Amino acid sequence: MRLDKFIANFTLYSRKEVKKLIKAKRITVNDSIASRPEMQIDEETDTISLDGQWIGYEPYIYYLLNKPQNCLSTTRPGPTSIVTDFLPANEVEIYQPFPVGRLDKDTEGLLLLTNDGDFAHDLLSPKKLVSKEYYAEIEGIVTEEDVKAFAKGLTIDQGDHCAPSQLDILATDPAKNRSEITVTLTEGKYHQVKRMFQAVGKEVIYLQRFRIGSLYLPEELELGTAFKLLPEEAQLALKNETD
Fold first, then answer.
1. How many whole angstroms separate alpha carbon 119 and alpha carbon 67?
2. Dist CA 187 CA 91 (whole Å)
3. What pLDDT digit, counting tens, does each position of 62-82 carry?
């Protein structure tokens, strides 16, 4: 394949722009500066770089995003920010990644984006029982009775039954009528955590997802920041901690 065609295929540069990059000596082939746009390369064995950054086609990409509030888990542009706004624009254009599942607009934390449909299907499949863990601040005092009710499986509004879940009380503050908890789910019903606490007479006032399977949200990752995962790192999301 011609060098200029290869670069144009896997970047947002046109062939005309690629010729300028080659003329500026910004393109290398196997660590040697490229001099001709028509140079023939082997896309499977040759290493092509632009300004020292590898250029190549990956069939699938995986990103971990620390989703901020007031951001929609969609790829459709709208009046507010969307999750793909936080990924490199060229990769969004080329690979068209999508969020795996969703987090509510006002929920923060771990969200995966990919173009790997099989991976997304496995992660969302109820049969896989992939665990997802959340931290929440609650209006109301969470009790051991609530813990037992969650473990048994709550029936929430409209008769919707939830699978058993693990609720852990981190702290309670009777003076402020507040609690801090973590809850682990193996399903993803609409507004599930909020609806479960409503079912026991309490209200979620802050919610963050920090774990999917064995994949954790890095503590140092700032809100609105995403980073690329290796395929083997993404696979951690499919492996529960007890696997």
1. 20
2. 30
3. 999 999 999 999 999 988 999
Catalytic residue from among 104, 106, 122, 168:
104
Q: First vs last Cα of the chain: how many Å apart? A: 45
**148-191 pLDDT, tens digit each:** 999 999 999 888 999 999 999 999 999 999 999 999 999 989 99
Torsion of CA 114, 64, 188, 166, to 10 degrees: 150
Q: Identify whether the C-beta of residue 103 lies closer than 8 Å to the C-beta of residue 192.
A: no
Of 92, 95, 91, 98, nearest to 75 by C-alpha is: 98
Domain 3-55 architecture: Roll (3.10)
Q: Respond yes or no: is residue 104 known to be catalytic.
A: yes
Among 3.50.50.60, 3.40.50.720, 3.30.70.580, 3.40.980.10, what is the CATH number of 62-126+215-238? Answer: 3.30.70.580
SS3 125: coil
Q: Which token pair is 14? A: 């046109």
